[in-house]
Amino acid sequence: MDFLQGLNPQQQDAVSHVDGPLLILAGAGSGKTRVITHRIAHLVRSHRVPGPAVLAVTFTNKAADEMRERVAKLLGDPSPGSRPMLSTFHSFCVRLLRRDGSPLASLRPGFTPAFTIYDEDEQLALVKSIYRNVGLDEKFMQYRAAISRISHAKNHQQTPADFYRQSTDPKTSKLAVVFEQYESRLRQANALDFDDLLLEAVRLLHHDQTTRDLYNRRFEHLMIDEYQDTNRSQYQLMQLLTVRHQNVCVVGDEDQSIYGWRGADIRNILDFEKDYPKARVIRLEQNYRSTKNILESAGAVVAHNLERKGKTLWTEAHSGAKIGLYEAPDAENEALFIADSIERLLAQDPADRVAVLYRTNFQSRQIEEALRRYGRKYLVVGGFSFYQRAEVKDLLAYLKAVASPQDSINLLRIVNTPARGIGKTTVEAVERYALERSLPIWEASGQMMGEKALGARAEAALGAFRALMERLRAEAEGKSVDAVLRAILNESGYRRMLETDPSPEAESRLENINELLNAAAEAAERGEGITEFLDHAALVADADGLDEHAAVSLLTLHNAKGLEFPVVFVAGLEEGLFPHSRSLNAESMLEEERRLCYVGMTRARKRLFLTWARARRRFGGGDLEPSVASRFLKEVPARLTENLSPESRGRQVDLAAERWEVREAAKRNTFTGKTYNSLENIAQFFAERGVAAPRPPAPAPIEPPAPAAPKPVAAPAAAKKTRGCAAGAAVRHPRYGRGTVLRREGEGDDLKLTISFPGYGLKKLIAKFAGIQAEE
DNA sequence: TGATTCTACGGTCTC
DNA sequence: CGTAGAATCA
Fold first, then answer.
1. pLDDT surpassing 80 at residue A109
2. Is the CB of A558 under 7 A from strand B?
3. pLDDT value at residue A674
4. Which of A156, A177, A656, A745 could anchor a disulfide with A699, C-beta 3.0 to 4.6 Å?
């Protein structure tokens, strides 16, 4: 097969470049992924480079998976041993440290390749605990701010001592203490945070020549995707992996650099030619994705930036529709406009996929509400993911504590969950003891037991807990992940805690736990052990959860990187929101916001809408605060746009959702769930069980407007059956038997009843599905 | 000690 | 509005 076929001359150039450094400046939609995958196939097939000697690194698992698939197809499904290696930076480093990381022990005391990965929650717990120990509280500095400053320092190769020396104010000096504690507690727990994964891999390759040689021999070619978003350690990693051959090909677009706040250094791409004077530079400037209007608008916006190499994208596509602009009176109306437009567009073209992009996650809520009013299914990418749920994290904490006795943070998380009589005072005493002797909590509690340093009650409770953990550790030997999890669930009392919990959430928590058990069983079938399972849980990203087939996706602009959609809405284009208020002071930050805007706009293939609201509430119950149109809106050339705002059209906005009957339907339709893919969303919960969700009437065609005459909604059938269920009424449930209604919420199909069942406690049920009967 | 209620406060983006 | 931590009561 000829891997150059069907490529334009620049793409062919890039694919056929084999030896030495190569920089591909690939504009949005210029066939970047195609070039990378074809180049890999070309190296393997035409130049006989062994598959495993090619390493390609991306930022998300999703991108890596997609490329892996495409490469496999090009190569005709190679055997596992001959596949090129496609990976994210983080998982590559984890694998390196687990497989070949032992020598790091001489650089990082206590390190073993069985290290634990600490995610954000664990970092947070750690910092909280340090604050307590050194007598600080959040008034000193917010936990997250402290974490981010520590992370920044680490990424700039500062030790706590450096940090302390360079501090100029007392606040920073104090923070240095937190930093020092943070590092030593990580080491004590043999834990690495996300930054460490990269930093320690770099340190190992830097100081250990054997490992460096090994990896330089192993990989003959290195490719890096999204190079504009690499940070310093990723840059060093690149250099260390290519000292021998310099066969490095980086692909990026400085106009799409949007992770400066995370340490991405745009100079990496701007200065690539300085770092590698012999580098070839190839520009891909033909766009294959968007219409001319979309491309030109986005280009006009980003042209306001100074810090760029400058390039002009062009396309053979037709002009297409104009960019739709919508100025809403308030955020609710903006959301309704979006939902309404989506209905119309999907009515025309049901196969199209739509993305609604926003700057901050909280904006999704209102848009979700509007979409629900229309009965439109949607998928929220990001927000609260499965692995962040408390019950899932609890079980993973057990798993980590079982696997790694010195992991104090996870041990503390579960020591009294479920409640087993180890209260605050006991925990504090153990923490103090541990701190004074710099011992892990596990050791400290063991010693305290021996010294009879605790009261009888606390000692009994703690002893029982220690016995539990020891038993679990013994049982875990040689068992599969799911078996270990099941043992934890049963023996710790966690399952019983949820089963006896009368609150309605407990049920969905059990569901989540079952899902976790399934995931564990699947992992075990693939041959994964406990560590691999935990690694996987730590390294999944929100964007990885995107379902390509969902008709409507809601996601942040950051999560939209690398994706494309026929129809795109960018919402909330207001000064202070987008560009975000925190970036208004510095020009460089403002440019990053502008690039973000560029990224969002260039996701669109056919239609692009930009919306903003003249007023918006910051808090749920707060006031409507006025806002000003984003400067980015003014940077879009007027001749390319079409104003869709009600005023400019000389008539009142006719949103179906503002009509009476849709509002009524919406009232009955207020779910409590946050995301479509969450079990909290009742509609989806039942849809998966083959029960149709209650749907508001489909919106009428645009013209002529449907009469808005209020007419009573017929009482749904289910309501009749439950008519007698007023508060205080006696009812019967097929499973729980007799109960008393305490509370009514909603009406019709969505009538929810809170019922007290003797022996089962309180249950919140949806009358329609629960099969409740009024008791005579 | 543990469960429940009360109150104060606050929100970029993410591997 | 949602959450975290404090205060309160059993």
1. yes
2. yes
3. 29
4. A656
CA of A38 to C1' of C7 (A): 65
How large a percentage of chain A has pLDDT more than 90? 60
DSSP three-state, residue A277 = coil
The residue lying closest to nucleotide C1, measuring its CA against C1', is: A620
In which band, very low, low, confident or very high, does the pLDDT at A608 lie, cut at 50, 70 and 90? Answer: very high
Residue A590: what pLDDT?
Answer: 93
Q: For the residues of A649-669, what is the DSSP string, one character each?
A: GTS----GGGSHHHHHHHHHT
Give the model's pLDDT for residue A594. Answer: 96
Strand B close to A38 by CB, under 7 A: no
Beta bridge partners of A753: A744, A765
Q: Quick one: pLDDT band at residue A652, thresholds 50, 70, 90?
A: very low
In this prediction, residue A727 carries a pLDDT of: 52
Q: Nearest to residue A687, comparing CAs of A772, A769, A771, A773? A: A769
**Phi, psi (rounded to 5 degrees) for A116:** -100, 150
Query: Could you say which nucleotides of strand C lie within 7 A of any protein CB atom?
Result: 1-2, 5
Cβ(A661)–Cβ(A318) below 8 Å: no
Residue of A390, A438, A399 whose CA lies nearest to A116: A399
Q: What is the pLDDT of residue A556?
A: 92
Cα-flanking dihedrals φ and ψ of residue A355, to 5°? Answer: -120, 135
**pTM for the whole structure:** 0.82
- Give A387's DSSP letter: G
Per-residue pLDDT reduced to its tens digit, A55-75:
999 988 888 988 999 999 999
CB-to-strand C contacts below 7 angstroms = A 128, 619-621
Strands (E), A48-178: 54-58, 85-88, 116-118
Peptide bond into A704 cis (omega under 30): yes
> Look-up: residue for tokens 């208020």?
A581
Bridge-based pairing of strands A773-774 and A248-252 is unpaired
A6 touches strand B (CB under 7 A): no
User: Closest nt to A423 (CA→C1')?
Assistant: B1
Secondary structure (3-state) at A621: coil
Sign of CA dihedral A563, A567, A570, A571: negative
Residue A274 CA neighbour count, 13 Å, CB half? 5
* Residue of least CA–C1' distance to C2: A620
- What is the average pLDDT across A641-662? 64
Q: Which nucleotide is closest, CA of A621 to its C1'?
A: C1
Q: Is A646:A606 a contact under the CB 8 Å cutoff?
A: no
pLDDT band of A713, cuts 50, 70, 90? very low
Cβ–Cβ < 8 Å for A573, A632: yes
Give the residue numbers of A marked as catalytic.
32-33, 225-226, 256, 603
Nearest-Å Rg of the Cα atoms of chain A is: 29
Give A498 CA → B5 C1' in Å. Answer: 22
